[in-house]
Amino acid sequence: MSAPEHGVPPARPAAPGAASGDTDAQAVRVTRDGPVLTVTIDRPARRNAMTYAAWDELGAALSEAAAGDARVVVVTGTAGAFCSGGDLDGGDRAPHPHAQLAAVARTCQTLVSLPQPTIAQVDGLAAGAGFGLALACDFVVASRRARFGTMFLARGLSPDFATSWLLPRLVGPRLATRLCLLPEIVDADRAHAWGLLEDVVEPDELPGRVEALAARLAAGPPIATRLTKQLLRDSFARGVEESLAAETMAQSINRLSADAQEGIAAFRERRPARFEGR
Which whole number is the average pLDDT over 28-36? Predict the structure, then answer.
């Protein structure tokens, strides 16, 4: 995990009662708007850098989302930043480094395994584990002032939050090696050109663009969406024979659903489908 990048002024000191090294302060807020659940990292005094307690709090929020009926989960940060990685300056410390990083790994596993589609709404810095947090979402929509970087090696650290697993799959091994071994902060347009982002918009357009994408995803069939995510996630560990068997099982489940009957009826009647998740 990384602190804010080299060359960028440090965040202002935390005001009394603000989230910083104070592990009792709430680091994550959860809001719901119809089928869309938004998880917001709220440590503005630290550019949303995460203590290990904050990672656990984020993981708990994601676990609740996985068990709930929200159709889409949005992950974002407050006050013009996404997440600047781990709080290396004022964070809490577990008894052993392995225990510290276990909190990060648990949260990452929960996010990657989330059955609902996920969107990272990135405005400002996403560095270190914060970069991995964005990459672990299914879609990344960023403002033009967003910046991205691994930055682990610049702190004498190696990647975490599955960055070493995600990057090669997203951009290929050569570019992933460059991004990790020659850490630098890149702007949103460059990250978009590399295929890391779904879209780049002006800062004032970011919430609306994410809302539109979330609405489109939420309108899809929940059962088929979750099964499709699972098929794609598991594909790297399967051969073609296993993938065909998994597809057959998933399609059999879909064909028995009311949503599939609705989708076929809507096609025949030339109207939009109305999926209810049953």
Answer: 96
DSSP letter (8 states) at residue 36:
E
Concatenate the DSSP letters of all residues of 132-147 into one string. Answer: HHHHTSSEEEEETT-E
CB 35 within 8 A of CB 71: yes
Condensed to tens digits (0 to 9), the pLDDT of residues 152-210 reads 999 899 999 999 999 999 999 999 999 999 999 999 999 999 999 999 999 999 999 99
Cα angle 3, 92, 13 (rounded to 5 degrees) comes to 55
For 27, the token pair is 């680091």
| pLDDT tens digits for range 87-97 | 877 556 666 77
Is the sign of the CA dihedral 142, 146, 149, 151 positive or negative? negative
Q: How far is CA 227 from CA 40, 230, 254, in A?
A: 26, 5, 9
- Amino acid identity, position 31: T
Q: Evaluate the CA torsion angle 50, 157, 92, 3 in order and state its sign.
A: negative
Residues in the chain: 278
Long-range contacts at 123-126 (CB < 8 A, ≥ 24 apart) = 123/76, 123/77, 123/80, 123/81, 123/82, 123/203, 123/206, 124/47, 124/77, 124/80, 124/81, 124/82, 125/4, 125/5, 125/8, 125/47, 125/81, 125/82, 125/83, 125/84, 125/185, 126/82, 126/83, 126/84
Amino acid identity for residue 225 in this structure? T
Helix (H) or strand (E) segment spanning residue 181: helix 173-181
Backbone angles phi, psi at 58, to 5 degrees: -65, -45
Q: Is 80 left (phi over 0), alpha (psi -120 to 50) or beta?
A: left
Report how far apart, in Å, the C-alpha atoms of 28 and of each of 19, 23, 60, 209 are: 10, 12, 10, 22
